[in-house]
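FORM 12-B: Structure-to-Sequence Request
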């Protein structure tokens, strides 16, 4: 903020606190700290930041470009947790890369100090390029609170060594803290008191809050339980109350909903666990309804908490979670009946676990990956919609010939970017097929022949690309067995 005084920034922070816009208050406090390097403000910033990121997983990024796209006030502590985790795994090359290309480019922030001190005091950090990168970041941040630890570190270095010289230059680059005036100090104390009072009030109301949440989780379809919770939260000024109220309203304010999601959505979704991509979570009536698992998650899937009771849709992201069937069978996931991007081999066990899957999306070619797939699908009595990405003609033919086909409300297959086919056998609707690439006319003809198991009634074929005469003859021959064919 250009030309804004320290008093004005602290006043804006207090105003944001009063409106329960704590992330916005954090931004104002960061701007104030950059003017003063005040320890009082730094401690308040760290306290508020910890409150706002509680339960949120580390922000895993591999390149500085990814980091540059995530510059919100709550992203930095999560990003630094990732950097520290890389050091814990002795991945110092990646630590150096992110320090040199990512952290150095960030605005000055007192929340960098603790993780940077953790890194610089590790024996493995005394490796020339990593140590120098850390010194450069300390020089850029200039947090006076780091001086005591850095001076103590300097005494352990060999005098005259490059490391000692770099650290000495770093120490000389620091500027002293600007003392707060009486008015600014009073504002800082007021902010601390507001935060303390809010935390104490939340602790007192926690039993009521938990009881109302339990009602929502016990019956996720009961909108009235959500509205009672929303009223309780609105009395406290909790933005989640407003969010629930808006999403339950038939005339919702979409702009306000979007703003609340931008500011709080990641924190609300983080309750689902670190294996969830929190920024790919969709909310309905104030609670998560659709989630995407992190494709880079390598540990066993954590047991779902009660927060999962409102989730209806899980995007598996094509990852090989070996314990997926057992995980989905847990009672907290009883409402998760829509699964997306599931590897076919993971479907083994779905029927034995008694999963009530209604809609399933698979990554093909499905039968190549799991020859016994159809037997597994036939054990899912609730399955009514099936989608196969990257399908081939064999997938189409086998699904159409399966006893399961007659009960499907919708079957959709996508042959990469070459073709699509949609059937609704239970409704007796016409098959709808689209050829996107003329070069794929021959496999598309095999798809049309394989789809006859869904019914030989009406077929609607759309050709988006100019198909040569030989390709058209193949398509016409494949479609000739249908009772009625429409071309477009």
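FORM 12-B RESPONSE
SEQUENCE OUT:
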């Amino acid at each position: 903020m250009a030309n804004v005084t320290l008093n004005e920034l602290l006043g804006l922070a207090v105003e944001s606190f009063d409106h329960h816009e704590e992330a916005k208050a954090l931004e104002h406090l960061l701007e104030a700290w950059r003017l003063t390097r005040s320890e009082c403000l730094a401690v308040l910033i760290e306290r508020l930041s910890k409150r706002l990121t509680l339960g949120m997983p580390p922000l895993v990024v591999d390149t500085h470009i990814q980091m540059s796209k995530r510059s919100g006030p709550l992203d930095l502590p999560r990003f630094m947790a990732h950097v520290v985790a890389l050091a814990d795994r002795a991945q110092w090359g990646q630590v150096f890369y992110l320090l040199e290309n990512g952290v150095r480019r960030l605005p000055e922030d007192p929340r960098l100090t603790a993780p940077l001190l953790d890194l610089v005091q590790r024996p493995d950090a005394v490796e020339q390029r990593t140590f120098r990168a850390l010194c450069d970041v300390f020089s850029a941040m200039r947090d006076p609170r780091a001086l005591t630890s850095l001076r103590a570190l300097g005494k352990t270095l060999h005098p005259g060594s490059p490391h000692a010289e770099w650290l000495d230059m770093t120490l000389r680059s620091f500027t002293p803290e600007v003392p707060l005036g009486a008015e600014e100090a009073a504002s800082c104390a007021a902010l601390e008191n507001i935060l303390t009072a809010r935390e104490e009030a939340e602790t007192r109301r926690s039993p009521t809050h938990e009881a109302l949440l339990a009602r929502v989780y016990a019956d996720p379809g009961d909108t009235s339980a959500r509205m009672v919770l929303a009223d309780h939260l609105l009395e406290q000024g909790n933005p989640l109350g407003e969010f629930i109220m808006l999403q339950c309203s038939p005339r919702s304010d979409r702009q306000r909903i979007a703003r609340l999601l931008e500011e709080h959505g990641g924190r609300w979704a983080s309750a689902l666990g670190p294996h969830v991509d929190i920024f790919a979570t969709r909310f309905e009536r104030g609670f998560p309804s659709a989630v995407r698992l992190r494709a880079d998650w390598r540990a066993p899937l954590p047991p779902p908490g009660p927060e999962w009771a409102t989730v209806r849709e899980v995007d598996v992201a094509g990852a090989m979670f070996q314990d997926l069937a057992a995980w989905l069978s847990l009672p907290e996931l009883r409402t998760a009946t829509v699964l997306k991007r599931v590897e076919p081999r993971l479907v083994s066990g779905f029927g034995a676990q008694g999963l009530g899957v209604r809609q399933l999306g698979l990554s093909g070619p499905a039968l190549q990956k799991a020859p016994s797939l159809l037997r597994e699908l036939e054990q899912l009595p609730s399955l009514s919609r099936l989608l196969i990405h990257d399908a081939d003609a064999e997938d189409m033919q086998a699904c159409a010939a399966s006893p399961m086909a007659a009960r499907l409300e919708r079957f959709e297959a996508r042959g990469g970017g070459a073709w699509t086919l949609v059937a609704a056998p239970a409704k007796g609707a016409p098959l709808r097929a689209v050829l996107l690439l003329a070069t794929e006319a021959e496999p598309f003809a095999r798809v049309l022949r394989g789809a006859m198991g869904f019914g030989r009634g009406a077929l609607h074929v759309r050709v988006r690309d100019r198909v040569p005469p030989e390709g058209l003859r193949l398509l016409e021959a494949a479609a000739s067995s249908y009772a009625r064919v429409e071309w477009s």
